[in-house]
Amino acid sequence: MVLDSKRKIIVYIFIFVFFGGISFTYADQTKEIRIGFVPSMGEGDIEIYQELINHLSRETGINFKGVTTKDYAGIIQALSYGQIDFARLGPKSYVEAAEYAEIEALALELNKKGEPGYYGILIAKNGKGITSFAQAKDTRFAFTEPDSTSGYLVPSVMLVKDLKVEPRKYFKSINFSGSHGDSILGVKNGTYDIASVATKLLDRMVEKGEVVHDDFVILEKSDLIPGPCFCARKALPLKLKTDFQNALISFNQNKKALQKLQCGGYMKTNDKTYDIIRELNLMKKQLTRK
């Protein structure tokens, strides 16, 4: 059974198993300052951020360490208790985290074209006879997880508002794969017929040689979604947050590393950038009630 994000967060409030650390002071530069990541492609995904983490440590003179939990609710719980100080969150998870934790958005991730965001797509396996969404009725559909923006929130609104279908009646089955990588491989291997994923994460798997673009047909594409953000606890010293932000943006010079991340770099941002996600959340609730 998949718990919704708010129920997960309440459960995690009583669990202290993910992180053993406490909040660190900027003055003590021998301490680790932890950055939380949620694997978007499956286990081990955090490794692709190690070069960025090393860069942040060199530029600031602070020892940064990347840590992970299995889902966004664990990251939100850790931020709430000061067990991590920074985190990379998707747009939806950032908005939800801001409801429970005193955090602020510092930098937004650009796509490979330099646009301030990315796109959600609905994909099917090439050669299986599904070349348009009109042919998707009575098929097996996969979201990624309930806290995902492009893997759940955006396609949920797209299906009901734009495509005029009620997912649980339109599809043969609705599934949650757990990650974008699992959804992509699930379509390729025939576990699912249709899946909602992010363009950048499909590109990453192509870059790694795990799939090729010709494996899939893109049935629908969303409007531009604000990119994932790096956020920080508001209680951190201003200098630490500013140094982190500047060091992150200076990583834009490392084009080779950005290519591995399927990323076009970073730009400064703030909370208002993600108001569109709040609007989509509200719209989804309204559509669900109808």
TrEMBL record:
UniProt keyword annotation of Signal present: yes
Transmembrane segment boundaries: 9-27
Pfam families, sorted: Phosphonate-bd
GO biological process, one term: transmembrane transport
Keywords of this entry: Membrane, Signal, Transmembrane, Transmembrane helix
InterPro entries for this protein: PhnD
One Gene Ontology cellular component: ATP-binding cassette (ABC) transporter complex
NCBIfam families: 3A0109s03R (TIGR01098)
Family per similarity comment: Belongs to the phosphate/phosphite/phosphonate binding protein family.
Name used for this protein in its record: Phosphonates-binding periplasmic protein
Species this protein is from: Desulfonema limicola
